[in-house]
Amino acid sequence: MDLAGTGVVGALRKVFSYMRPPTELSKIDRITAAAAHLWWRTHDLDDAQPYVAGMQEADEALEWTLFSEAEAPNGADGQEPRQSSSWLAGQEGEVCGARLRSVLHSVEGLARLLFSTVLLCWNIRRVLPDSEGGNNTRLSFQEWLEVNSRIEADGTTPSVAVQKCIYNTLLQDECIELLPDASVKKTAMPEFQEAPEDTSSALRAAGQVAGETLSGWASIPPGGLERFDVPMPHGHQGGLSGAKLSHCVLSETSSSFLDRGHKNGINLLQPEVTASSGEAVWMSLKYAFWLFFSTSPDDPAPYVFIRLQDTVLRETNLRDKSLVLAGRMKKSADDDVAGPFGDSAREPLRLCFLLADGRFQLFEALWLELQLTSEEEMQMWARAISNACIAE
What we know:
Layout: H1 8-15, H2 25-42, H3 52-63, H4 66-71, H5 97-103, H6 107-124, H7 141-147, H8 160-172, H9 199-210, E1 212-220, E2 225-227, H10 245-248, H11 255-259, E3 262-263, E4 266-267, E5 279-286, E6 290-294, E7 304-307, E8 311-317, E9 322-327, E10 349-354, E11 360-371, H12 375-388
Antiparallel strand pairs: 1-5, 2-11, 3-4, 5-6, 6-7, 7-10, 8-9, 9-11, 10-11
């Protein structure tokens, strides 16, 4: 994602252009922190030096207006306060790129300002419900300044001019990208009219077009998941024999994994795959090349996926009704025959886990063994996976 040349609101709109902001504040905090680090690395402070003096002058010019705005937030004529430092704002009406970088003291301060901006947008658009006995009226600029007081890592307050531009931008623009699903209006902004008004709906539509190639229950037997990065005896790579997917990561969708009971009255484990030494998984092959694992068919999201184009179907066993996935051959294979299958060295099998905070974590394994419930299902899965995998 390219955040070069963006301001606070512009960066947030780019971040949320492909997903709707979650309503959980902990997730918003995680997303804005990641966006702040990406934005910070994108902008070099050396390019911002010519703007430092001008920004300081703009801050001083705005100070005298704060008291009058606190007394009359909408101005003497009843209109919304206008931008008094437009000379430093970009085309989007806010301080952008190098100019913004020159007045920020820390990435932590930027992350908190991004988080505060999302909440300000929700406050202006009445996204948050009224609390009992509370007041959900729109924050004035002065009140929002007090919210952002001393949020920089060094205890200072972000530039007043920057905050003024952010505040006015949110007043003048609907910024539907920053609103959760329930708050999004049906009319798209002019610059986004050619794009789907709801990206999540577009993704669901794409999923319906692509279809789900195959899905069903399977189990991972003991030793079916071998970690890649722990040395094994006799010079082999491997380790954590018998590791379970549920031991690798704890995701929001894996609570039923540990419970092994019922969810919404549905038995998560079919009798054919229920084994005291195994681990049941619901597999879904989608978009022809992506293998998803869930704890049950009704889970809202998978907790791990594998890109099959980076894997090979290494073994099939009709008697045991099992399949073994492994990493593909290295492009420049040497004469080392100490690999897990006695052949030349392989790339690790890469699984991507969904963490509880919404991030994905890469997990490298030597192989993954899957046992199916019948010979017919094993053959169907073998054909589908072999078609998706890279041929050796």
